[in-house]
Design a protein that fits this description.
The protein is mainly α and 609 residues long. It has 25 helices and 3 strands. It has a 3-stranded mixed sheet, with helices on one face.
Length: 609
């Protein structure tokens, strides 16, 4: 028996070697060949090669740490123009290779992956033509805001090495900013200069960031908090790291911010108050391209503007109907009614730090309440949890009312719903539910966390996103929560409709600013007259649309398409329609262009019938 076993082991050993050789050859082919055997392997390979070029993406995703690879956490992305040129070459080669796969040789899943990949890789001619048609430093985004957020939210500290990587990043941040300045100077030569008010607020934001002592800066405070929570870092080492961080903040970070303040203060002399991208070289063509990219649709600026006007009127009528049912005097007019309601004391919190803590707790309560009921509407629920946090103080003044940050791939970081508590008089109690449903459950958290956890689609599709899909889902989620009965009284429903009104108004003002050449002031007036929002809130919104052209169109366009597809499924399937199955179709394929989502729903209907 022993002799037979040895012979068998020898044969098995040879077989294992042969299998490893074959597997190694296959893996090498799939990684290096112009056309791998499987298109999904090519798409995953392309995505992975792209991500491996970005230390910042790797830190956010945390896909290498499980293999003991973490050197990237000490580095920044290469933001030089040369690096951008290399990236375009990479994209062009990727598109050419993807097109080697004929549609007829792909499975249904592979064909969806191909369409998603091609859309992601983009309209490369226009991508390249318009790559400088933006403002890399503005009042709500850009390195001066994003990098502190990134280090606070994504750079995890568990070991001494993690802390060393953090210090390394602080010490080389000036290089990252120098690289970005290359593109800013090109934009200046092209005449792509932010409006005066954007420069003023960006400079004010940067000044606020450096006006505080290093020990009070978020880069220090966040680091200190993480060091204290890290059980493997002793007090002596933590103190050493904090001393180094303080020195880097004072000697590297603050001088870097000051150099940008000086540059933009001088650039202000060349700026104007013109708000729209029509002022850019080929500005009209750029906006058309932006609409297509943001909405993944063929809608024109003119069509979107008209849809917005119609939706504003519809939503206004629904709100007035509620006011009438609640006994309000409609002769006062819509705007007076909505403003008066927003100013009623019963719908506001007093302004104090204790109350801010109470507000965060209330948001957690709202989320916990709706989370327990989602089995009735979804077959699959995300495993990742969602936290509620305050937006960092340094960026609150120009930040939106809220935003969401997704969980890491390895599950070590939960999803996070960030709330702006700078001025708590800006928001009302009757608007809180809708905001929580949009950012957390069943909105962004459900969609992004579920996508992150998918196993039966190529990995790249679990990590990419399309604005119209993701924001369309989040706005649809507001409506879904209402249909589930979670808006407890008519005022909660007014809050929902007011939020939808804002998204409808966006269709009008975004196209108004960038296509019809509206001034900033005209857009502010239109939004105030139709939302009843405070002037300060409206200004933040309008100035957001000015620096992010087309982005705000995606919400309503995406929501309307999901509702259209749901109604189509209901009509064609009748009693066979199941809301949970519909949500499976929408969510379990990952983020995709709206036209691909439409194809998927049509196939679901045909198969279900």
């Amino acid at each position: 028996m022993l002799g037979i076993s040895k012979r068998l082991l020898k044969k098995a050993g040879l077989g294992i070697v042969l299998l490893l050789m074959i597997a190694g050859g296959f893996i090498a082919h799939e990684w290096y060949a112009e056309k791998p055997f499987y298109s999904n392997n090519f798409a995953n390979r392309t995505f992975l090669k792209y991500v491996l070029r970005s230390p910042e993406q790797l830190t956010s995703m945390r896909i290498l740490e499980r293999f003991g690879m973490n050197a990237h956490n000490a580095e920044w992305d290469d933001c030089t123009i040369a690096a951008s040129d290399n990236e375009f070459e990479f994209f062009e080669n990727s598109v050419n290779s993807m097109n080697l796969y004929g549609d007829d040789e792909l499975t249904e899943s592979e064909l969806v992956s191909k369409k998603v990949a091609i859309e992601l890789l983009g309209d490369l001619d226009n991508d390249k033509k318009f790559r400088f048609h933006n403002y890399p430093i503005n009042q709500i985004s850009g390195m001066h805001i994003w990098i502190p957020r990134f280090l606070d939210n994504s750079h995890q500290i568990s070991t001494n090495e993690d802390a060393e990587h953090y210090i390394s990043r602080l010490s080389t941040l000036d290089v990252r900013f120098e690289q970005c300045m290359e593109g800013i100077l090109v934009r200046e030569e092209m005449g792509i200069i932010p409006p005066t008010f954007v420069i003023d607020k960006s400079v004010a934001n940067m000044q606020t960031f450096i006006d505080q002592p290093a020990e009070e800066n978020i880069l220090y405070v966040s680091f200190d908090k993480k060091l204290k929570a890290a059980t493997t870092i002793d007090a002596a080492a933590a103190n050493k790291f904090l001393t180094l961080a303080k020195l880097e903040i004072e000697n590297t970070i603050y001088p870097t911010w000051r150099s940008y303040i000086e540059y933009f203060t001088l650039l202000r002399e060349k700026s104007t108050t013109d708000a729209g991208v029509w002022k850019f070289p080929d500005g009209e063509a750029f906006y058309d391209y932006t609409i297509s990219k943001r909405t993944t649709s063929k809608l024109t600026a003119k069509e979107i503007h008209q849809i917005g006007l119609e939706e504003v009127n519809r939503i206004k009528d629904e709100i007035l109907t509620i006011f009438e049912a609640e006994g309000y005097d409609l002769s006062k007019g819509y705007l007076t009614l909505i403003k008066d309601l927003s100013e009623e004391e019963r719908f506001h919190y007093p302004d104090s730090d204790d109350v801010r803590t109470q507000i965060l707790a209330e948001y957690r309560k709202i989320i916990n309440e709706i989370e327990t009921e989602q089995n009735q509407y979804f077959n699959v629920l995300p495993k990742a949890s969602v936290e509620v946090k305050r937006i960092p103080k340094f960026s609150e003044k120009t930040a939106p009312s809220a935003y969401y940050s997704g969980p890491s791939v390895d599950g070590s970081r939960p999803g996070t719903f960030f709330v702006n508590l700078n001025d708590i008089n800006k928001f009302t109690k009757f608007g809180m539910r809708t905001l929580a449903y949009h950012e957390a459950i069943p909105g962004h958290h459900f969609q992004i966390a579920l996508q992150n956890e998918l196993n039966d689609i190529p990995f790249f599709r679990t990590q990419v996103g399309f604005t119209a899909y993701s924001e369309g889902w989040a706005l649809y989620a507001e409506r879904l929560a209402y249909e589930q009965g979670f808006h407890k009284d008519p005022y909660d429903n007014i809050g929902r409709l007011q939020a939808e009104m804002m998204r409808a108004v966006r269709l009008v003002v975004d196209t108004g600013i960038h296509s019809k050449r509206w001034t900033r002031e005209k857009a502010i007036e239109y939004m105030q007259n139709n939302t009843g929002m405070s002037l300060s809130s409206v200004v933040v919104e309008i100035e957001r649309y000015i620096v992010w052209p087309g982005q705000a169109l995606a919400y309503k366009v995406g929501m309307m398409e999901i509702l259209r597809l749901r109604q189509m499924a209901k009509t064609k399937l009748g009693e066979k329609f199941d809301i949970r199955e519909f949500h499976d179709v929408v969510l379990l394929g990952g983020s995709m262009p709206l036209h691909v989502l439409s194809e998927q729903v049509s196939k679901y209907i045909a198969n279900r019938k």
